[in-house]
Amino acid sequence: MSSGKRYQLGVIGALFLSVASSVSIVICNKALMSNLGFPFATTLTSWHLVVTYCTLHVAYRLHFFENKAIDMKTVILFGVLNGVSIGFLNLSLGFNSIGFYQMTKLAIIPFTVLLETLFLKKQFSKNIKLSIFVLLFGVGIASVTDLQLNFVGTVLSLLAIATTCVGQILTNTIQKRLNVTSTQLLYQSAPYQAAILFVSGPLVDQYLTKQNVFAFKYSPLILGFIILSCVIAVSVNFSTFLVIGKTSPVTYQVLGHLKTCLVLGFGYTLLHDPFTERNIIGILVAIVGMGLYSYFCTYENKKKQTDLSPASQIKDKDSNTPLLGHQDKENHFDVKKATKDSLV
To answer: How many other CB atoms are there within 10 angstroms of residue 5's CB atom?
Structure first.
């Protein structure tokens, strides 16, 4: 099997793992929080990251992957940034209406495109931008209901958007420029993400829910769902880094809205959530947008491979990777040999 085919299968596998694990954990957490009354989302996320790190540490000790030293300052800043972004997203949900929170999530894609265009000089064609607009319009129809604005909630939403976009761009950039795998980066950054959420999580949750996570009564059923959520989270965290590393932050966000549509569908099927014609129309429009995004990315990548010389193909990497697209060669960056690599 050629390297291009192996890379394509790797991308498809990463996308499938991301969708399956994300939809599973949303359904699990919805049952845990809505049906069993466990409201501590930020603290639960810190437990997810602790379990993820422990799992990766066991895998490392069993020689399933090799660790690569990265500059400590880079890892700490990256880990803290990702932890803070999760906290801001949860605070945004707490201070805003559901509709405004959904708008916050929708704003992540155009803001990511803006940042990559301004600072990384990436180019997004009109067709790609059109397909993203169709996707966001569809998800907006399906998921955005009420829009209630307030100053604190708006500020928190802007901070959540900024930190999330920068964190995801760095997830892609660090892996490529420092030539580290998604597993290596997650293994080294997870302790710092977990630490900041482990400290701030109970405080954030207590402020939002007026309940103390340590005084909560844990039944065997609740503990079982918490353990299941943490196990699924290992796949979610791993596949997140894997997808962003193999594709791009924008493609990961597009995939995230596919998950939103699937969650709405599964919520109606399994949990009997309310489902209207508006939801159906929005999901169909979003699917069209995702199809256009994948088609245009595939078409433009093939066109670049035809137009560019082999030498320039090695030098320049496509800025967009389709959901099920084709790429002949994975880009390799020349990194100076050193004991530790750093972006800072």
So the answer is: 11
3-state SS assignment for residue 78: helix
> Lowest mean pLDDT: which of 246-260, 261-275, 288-302?
261-275
Q: How far is CA 277 from CA 40, 173, 257, 280, 331, in A?
A: 32, 41, 19, 5, 44
What DSSP designation does 276 have?
-
| pLDDT tens digits for range 162-180 | 999 999 999 999 999 999 9
Cα–Cα distance measured from residue 103 to residue 226, given in angstroms and rounded to the nearest whole number = 29
What is the DSSP secondary structure assignment for residue 214, as one 8-state letter?
Answer: T
Run of H or E residues at 197: helix 182-209
Whole-angstrom distance, CA of residue 214 vs CA of residue 232: 23
Place of tokens 């409201």: 39
Q: Whole-angstrom Cα distance, residue 267 to residue 275?
A: 9
DSSP assignment string, 89-152: HHHHHHHS-HHHHHHHHHTHHHHHHHHHHHHS-----HHHHHHHHHHHHHHHHHH-------HH
Torsion of CA 260, 95, 167, 131, to 10 degrees: 40
Q: List the structure tokens of 75.
A: 């890892």
